[in-house]
Amino acid sequence: MPAQLDRRLGWVKQLEPACFKIDFAPPSGRELDSWIREELAARGTRIEPAALALLLDLVAAEPILLSNELEKLSLACADGIVTLDDVGAVLGRTRATE
Fold it and tell me: Under a CB-based contact definition with an 8 Å cutoff, are residues 76 and 46 in contact?
């Protein structure tokens, strides 16, 4: 959940006119699919469509968790292609230990 400023505070009221707000929303939908593929490509890895769908079901759009899982998947896949079995094996271990 994004942090919110308490606009009732005096210092916030004084500071707000001189500031601007930037939202850093995590990617979603096709943008998320592309982000995952780009992150894996940067690690020399590709992902099968079914594996991508399972990954999104298990991790959703939590950027830090997703980034960690992509790192584990890229390290676990010596052939450079993440399969459905790879996602089940790597994320299954993660889910079992949480």
Answer: no
On whether the pTM is more than 0.85, the answer is no
C-alpha 26/C-alpha 5 separation (Å) is 20
Give CA–CA dist 54/84, Å, rounded. 7
* pLDDT tens-digit map of 48-86: 999 999 998 888 767 788 889 999 999 998 789 999 999
Following DSSP, what letter does each residue of the chain receive, concatenated? ------TTSHHHHHHGGG------PPP-HHHHHHHHHHHHHHTT-EE-HHHHHHHHHHHTT-HHHHHHHHHHHHHH-TTSEE-HHHHHHHHHHHHHH-
